[in-house]
Specification:
Strand order of the largest sheet: 1-2
Largest sheet: 2 strands, parallel
Strand content: 5-15%
Helix content: 40-55%
Oligomer: single chain
Number of helices: 3
Order of helices and strands: HEHEH
Structural class: mainly alpha
Length: 117
């Protein structure tokens, strides 16, 4: 799992760096990883333990770019908001995508971004 997380972090850093190189004033939008599992499932505790560590890596990369925003998807899609998930129980449904986009708009309106366009 550590190797997968390291590869994820490196890829995220490389992609973000490339975007920044192409346009230093671009607003880079990151999305938190969310735990879609209901708390009653057997692997919920494991996912609930691992995902914050992955999200920390997202925030660490985002903090390198002053004009970036990390959308707090975990506020709108989580084990208590199962109504925002599609029948597969993992991906957002229409209501979930709406909730994510509303969260994104909220943060873009209220979160200061240095030199963002």
């Amino acid at each position: 799992m550590d190797q997968v997380q390291t590869a994820f972090s490196n890829n995220l850093q490389d992609i973000s760096g490339r975007i920044h190189t192409l346009n230093p004033y671009a607003t880079i939008i990151f999305l938190e990883l969310y735990n879609p599992l209901p708390p009653s499932t057997q692997i919920y505790p494991l996912a609930d333990k691992l995902l914050p560590k992955w999200n920390l890596k997202i925030y660490e990369v985002a903090n390198q770019y002053p004009s970036s925003v990390v959308v707090e998807t975990t506020k709108v899609i989580n084990g208590k908001r199962l109504d925002n998930l599609s029948p597969d129980g993992v991906h957002p449904n229409s209501a979930g995508y709406t909730a994510i986009s509303e969260q994104m708009i909220l943060q873009l309106k209220h979160q200061y971004r240095k030199q963002a366009v």
